[in-house]
Structures are given as C-alpha cells and as structure tokens.
Specification:
Elements lengths: L20 H15 L12 H11 L4 H14 L3 H5 L3 H8 L6 H16 L8 H5 L6 H12 L8 H12 L10 H10 L4 H17 L18 H4 L19 H14 L4 E2 H5 L5 H13 L4 E4 L2 E3 L3
Antiparallel strand pairs: 1-3, 2-3
Helix pairs in contact: 1-11, 2-3, 2-8, 5-6, 5-13, 9-11, 13-15
Amino acid sequence: MAAITVTPAPRAATDPLPMPLPVLHSTVLGWYEANARELPWRTPEASPWAVMVSEFMLQQTPVKRVLPAYAAWLERWPTPADLAAEAPGEAVRMWGRLGYPRRALRLHAAAVAITEEHGGLVPDDHATLLSLPGVGEYTAAAVASFAFRQRHVVLDTNVRRVFARAVTGVEYPAQATTAAERRTATALLPDDTATAATWAVAVMELGALVCTARSPECGGCPLFAGCAWQRAGRPPYEGPARRGQSYEGTDRQVRGKLLAVLRAEHGTVEQARLDAVWPDAVQRARALDGLVADGLVEPVEQGVYRLPQ
C-alpha cells in the first residue's frame, strides 16, 4: 500500500489525505467486511428504533455492557409507542447500571415525541431527527446513516481518533469536535450514498477494534503504511490534559447507589433507606439533589422519593 498524500481539488483543499480516496475507501471497507463484529443493531432485521436505542446506550458505554441491556429493552419496548406508554421512571429502572441514566429519560422523551408527532415511526429525515428530545448531531447522523442508509458525516470518539492519527498525524483529537475535523470527515466521505453509510460504520469499527485509545494495534491496521501519525514517528499527544474516567468515591458513584435503591422498589422509598447507602451525609445530599434536579428522582413528600412518574 503506497503512502501517498494528495489533496483532491473538488474537496476540502486544506485537508491532506493519507492516500487516494478510492484506495482509502476500498482499504477500510475491505477491512470492515472481513472484520466487522456481528452486532444485533447491524442486522438487516434491526428496526430504526432498535438502531436509535443502540446509539443512546452506546454513548460512553462499552458494547459488552450494552448487549444484554439492549436485548432486554427491545423485548419490553419493541417500538417507541411501547416505551412512550410507560412512565419515564420505568425507563430509568430498565436502564440499570449502564451509567449516565439521563440517557434513559432522553430516550423516553424521544419515544414520546416519535409517538405523538411522527405516527410512532422514527423519522428518516436528519433535521427531524435532530429536533427530537435528547438527539444531538452525532445521534441524528448515526441513525440517519445506520438505519436509513443515508450519507452523513458521523463523528464519534472512535472516528475522530482514526482521522486524527491517519490524516492529521496526531495521537488524539481535540476534546471537542472542531470545524477542521468536520472538514476532514466531509472530504473523506464517499459520494455514493450506500457506500457512505457503510464507510461511517467501518471507520467507527476500525477505531473501536484497532485504532484504540490505549495500545492501538498499529501492526494490524489496514492504514498502517499511509498513516500520518506513523510516518511522523508516532509523536505523543501534546494537547490539554485528557480527563480521566474516575468513579470511586465520586458523586457519580453515590448517585448510582441511590438510584439502585429506587430502581429496586416499585413504590416510594423513605429517606432512611437512601441514607444507608453512603456515609458522607453532605455528599449524599448533594447527589440526591442532583438526581432530583435532573428529573431522575421525584420527591413525593418530605423524606419520601420515587422514580419519575
């Protein structure tokens, strides 16, 4: 595989590419065809709703943790209308220990909007998807691309990391998506709609399995010979300190313990049961106040709580 740098005139002239676009596309797509994981939301039978559920669950959560939750969720709520018919607290309950439970409330709100405003069908228009509660730019592009096979730039952490290394020559992308990244991703997007949809998931898979954040398997990467980061000698990251994912002893951990008590009880829970889960009263109160402010917990009366109804 030749290491060639070109700048195709019809595309973004400021974004150098690691190799000619046809070679880049065929290389990544060929790798994906041979190495893609078999995941339930990628099957032809997966509905747009199933794809949307997977995208909500996969945000900041590994696939292996999502798989059982995804299956249980769709068994109980196979359509948006099924979820919309239940209280939002039930979504929080079913979310279990996936983490970041506000995603459950947002998915429930999206299901209500889909049911009430779109006839119970996940809309296939990117702008309409973007108007749904809890659906941001990434999720709208991902659902439009993966569920409806449309041509959109899909930029998650894995994709951004692949492009940062292979094209830009840096170890990690910026902490927030930049305009330059979007220009690069747009320049690399295949013109053919169906191919673009497969490209989006193929690059994502490459980042998840090979071009990982820690210990990338560069020797097995299909872009090894043309990778700008490799050709530059794999320079270390020099940007702002990257945030860790600490959990032990944090308010996040306390929130999780409080929610676990509430999820296990289908009625109300008294303050004393919540007080028992964490010894630091100040931190515990702060975590509970945060859950109430986020709509994940409802005060029923003084010292009595429940999941939202």
